[in-house]
Design a protein that fits this description.
By secondary structure, this protein is α/β, with parallel strands linked by helices. The protein folds into 2 domains: 9-171, Rossmann fold (3-Layer(aba) Sandwich), CATH 3.40.50; 201-283, Conserved Hypothetical Protein Ylqf, Chain: A, domain 2, CATH 1.10.1580.10. The chain is 44% helix and 12% strand. The longest helix has 15 residues, at 202-216.
C-alpha cells in the first residue's frame, strides 16, 4: 500500500511560509515524538535557511521515553537544539520560553549591544498536519487563540498570536511534501494521524501497526485486549473483533471497525508508550539507500 496525500492548499501554505520567513527570528518545528524523522518535512529546513531553529518532539507522553532520549541526544550531537514536550500540559510554558531564549541568544545579545533591552521574539510554529502546532500555541497563550482538531488540515491560514511581552507566535498550516520517498514514511504518518483517514485503508494500516507491535512491543496488544500470544496479526484482528463485539450480521468479524478501535487506541496512548522510529533505524535505512 502506497500512501500519498497532498491537498492543494499545501502549495499555497508553502508559498506563504516562505514569504513570512522574512518576519521571524526563530523557527519552531514540531514533530511527533513517536514518529520523529518521518514527521519532519524536509522543506521546512530548506525554507528556514539561516534562521534560529528549535525542534520540539511533541506528544512525548505517548512515546517510548528511552527512544525519545535517544532522539534528543542524536540532535544534540548534530548541534541541533531539541526538546521533548507535551503541548497540552501548561507546565511546559516556562521550559518553552527558556528554550526559545536560548535558541535566539545570538540575536538577543546583538540587540543588547545596540542598547535594545526588551526584544519580542517572533517565532514561526511549523510542522506537518496534526502534530499539535495550534495546541502548543493555545497552551502558551492561555486561551483558544488557534483553531485545533484531531485530524489534519484544520489550520488553513497563517495568524499571529501574542503570548506575552517576550514572545509572538505565527501559527501556520501543516504542510507535507508532494511525494513520500519510501513506503514506511507514509505508513508511519498514517498511523499517527498526519494523513487523512479518508484516503486510507484503515484495516491495512492497522495490520501493519500490529506487525510492528508484535516485534517491538509484544505485550501491548495482549495487555490491552486480553488476547492470546499469537504472531499472526490477521488472526489477532479476528480475535479482537470478537472480544470487542465488532461483528457484522451473521456473526462475521467487522475487520474495519476493530481496526479503527486499535488504531485509535494507539493514537491516544491506550496501548502504552510506543515509538515507531529510533535514530539507529533511520541511520541503517540511509546507509542501505546509499549502497
Amino acid at each position: 500500500m502506497q500512501i500519498q496525500w497532498y491537498p492543494g492548499h499545501m502549495t499555497k501554505a508553502r508559498r506563504a511560509m516562505k514569504e513570512d520567513m522574512k518576519l521571524v527570528d526563530l523557527v519552531v518545528e514540531l514533530t511527533d515524538a513517536r514518529n520523529v524523522s518521518a514527521g519532519r518535512n524536509p522543506d521546512i529546513g530548506e525554507l528556514a535557511g539561516g534562521k534560529a531553529r528549535l525542534i520540539l518532539l511533541n506528544k512525548a507522553d505517548l512515546a517510548d521515553e528511552c527512544v525519545t532520549s535517544e532522539w534528543i541526544e542524536c540532535y544534540r550531537k548534530e548541534g541541533i537544539r531539541a526538546a521533548a514536550i507535551n503541548a497540552k500540559h501548561p507546565g511546559f510554558k516556562k521550559q518553552f520560553l527558556q528554550e526559545a531564549q536560548n535558541a535566539c541568544s545570538a540575536i538577543l545579545e546583538k540587540d543588547r549591544q545596540r542598547g535594545l533591552k526588551k526584544r519580542v521574539i517572533r517565532a514561526m510554529v511549523a510542522g506537518i498536519p496534526n502534530v499539535g502546532k495550534s495546541t502548543l500555541i493555545n497552551t502558551l497563550a492561555g486561551r483558544a487563540a488557534a483553531k485545533t482538531g484531531n485530524k489534519p488540515g484544520v489550520t488553513r491560514g497563517n495568524q499571529w498570536i501574542r503570548v506575552d511581552d517576550r514572545l509572538e507566535l505565527l501559527d501556520t498550516p501543516g504542510i507535507l511534501w508532494p511525494k513520500f520517498e519510501d513506503r514506511l514514511t507514509g505508513l508511519h504518518l498514517a498511523m499517527t494521524g498526519s494523513v487523512s483517514d479518508d484516503i486510507l485503508n484503515i484495516t491495512e494500516v492497522t495490520l501493519e501497526l500490529m506487525s510492528f507491535l508484535l516485534i517491538h512491543y509484544p505485550d501491548a496488544l495482549t495487555a490491552r485486549y486480553g488476547i492470546s500470544r499469537e504472531n499472526d496479526p490477521e488472526r489477532l484482528l479476528i480475535e479482537i473483533s470478537g472480544k470487542r463485539g465488532c461483528l457484522k450480521r451473521g456473526g462475521e468479524p467487522d475487520y474495519e471497525k476493530a481496526a479503527g478501535i486499535i488504531l485509535d487506541d494507539f493514537r491516544s496512548g491506550r496501548l502504552g508508550r510506543i515509538s515507531l522510529e529510533r535514530p539507529m533505524d533511520i541511520r541503517e535505512a540511509q546507509d542501505e539507500n546509499c549502497r
